[in-house]
């Protein structure tokens, strides 16, 4: 093997495109789960879920804490054995051929696990050596990744001197050192401010444009809408819904939502008076939500009935409305 060639193991030829849905027919399936199950004793964390991810797609797992998202990611990454079902990554079983699969995966964990005693550049170099990548390959690759992560001016800084956003970008850059075909991102922007989140979104968009398959979990509904071509909503280890963000909104919500506040002591009573004005009316402790096609018309009808909300807002329906409808508003334990 030449010194300039990465020493990662080769994959078998990519599978032929499937002849199902139009999107899947155009690209090979790189992740296939069928009735996937994971149990810990008497607790079932993942309860028979099935999904497919075509190459180059940005695929999301959305769900409350304890829904089984991270457990599913660990099984895809080959670091957690499944209890039942079938799982294929690029045509391979990650339990039987784990080293080959992991050589072509990039993993961004929920918590940064960088070596803070090392300099930024050295984190990338040493991580690349774990894959057996030659120095002749790594030297230009590291510089390329530093530029991609907008960290070239921090190359010789210690990691513990970086901001949270910089550390997250470095973690993503590190996950790309082996040029993975699939990038697994577990809550990639948790704890970051809006500016840092948008910078990360831009980096992930660029990876997708380069053909990298993205699989991510997130609690940020706007992030899922921005980044995911398609997603599954998971709750208690089961798939509640699947589709693109726009499809899920059309299927489970309305075009617009009217938010009205009448005061905590009046919201429930007023909700009963206006229950006929929308497709669905929901009374919360702090506000009343009316789901309707034309929010402005609903607001006019509310005022015409002599009701004067303290505040009112008409907004478009969002993925958060879908998420809360499917998984509930109660806090998960």
TrEMBL record:
PROSITE patterns linked: ABC_TRANSPORTER_1, ABC_TRANSPORTER_2
Pfam families (UniProt xref): ABC_tran
Record's keyword annotation contains Membrane: no
Protein keywords: Antibiotic resistance, ATP-binding, Nucleotide-binding, Transport
Domain ABC transporter intervals: 31-261
Key word ATP-binding present: yes
Region (Disordered): 1-25
SUPFAM superfamilies in alphabetical order: P-loop containing nucleoside triphosphate hydrolases
Membrane topology designation: Peripheral membrane protein
Cell compartment(s), UniProt: Cell membrane
Similarity comment: Belongs to the ABC transporter superfamily.
Entry protein name: ABC transporter
Species assigned in the record: Zhihengliuella salsuginis
């Amino acid at each position: 093997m030449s010194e300039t060639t990465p020493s990662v193991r080769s994959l078998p030829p990519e599978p032929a495109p499937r002849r199902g849905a139009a999107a899947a027919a155009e690209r090979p399936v790189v992740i296939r789960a069928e009735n996937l199950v994971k149990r810990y004793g008497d607790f079932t964390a993942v309860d028979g879920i099935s999904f497919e991810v075509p190459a180059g797609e940005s695929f999301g797992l959305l769900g409350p804490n304890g829904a089984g998202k991270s457990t599913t990611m660990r099984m895809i990454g080959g670091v957690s054995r499944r209890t039942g079902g079938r799982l294929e990554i690029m045509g391979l079983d990650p339990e039987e051929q784990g080293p080959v699969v992991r050589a072509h995966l990039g993993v961004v964990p929920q918590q940064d696990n960088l070596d803070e005693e090392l300099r930024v550049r050295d984190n990338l170099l040493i991580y690349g050596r774990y894959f057996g990548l030659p120095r002749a390959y790594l030297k230009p690759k590291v510089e390329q990744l530093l530029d991609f992560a907008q960290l070239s001016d921090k190359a010789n800084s210690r990691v513990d001197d970086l901001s949270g956003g910089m550390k997250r970008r470095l973690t993503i850059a590190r996950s790309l050192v082996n040029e993975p075909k699939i990038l697994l991102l577990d809550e990639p922007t948790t704890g970051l401010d809006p500016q840092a989140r948008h910078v990360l979104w831009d980096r992930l968009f660029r990876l997708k444009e380069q053909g990298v398959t993205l699989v991510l979990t997130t609690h940020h509904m706007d992030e899922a809408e921005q980044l995911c071509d398609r997603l599954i909503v998971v709750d208690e280890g089961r798939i509640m819904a699947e589709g693109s963000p726009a499809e899920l909104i059309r299927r489970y919500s309305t075009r617009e939502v009217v938010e009205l506040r009448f005061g905590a002591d009046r919201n429930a009573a007023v909700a009963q008076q206006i229950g006929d004005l929308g497709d669905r009316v929901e009374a919360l402790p702090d506000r009343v939500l009316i789901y309707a096609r034309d929010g402005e018309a609903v607001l006019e009808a509310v005022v015409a009935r002599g009701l004067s909300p303290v505040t009112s807002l008409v907004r478009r329906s969002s993925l958060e409305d879908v998420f809360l409808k499917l998984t509930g508003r109660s806090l998960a334990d």
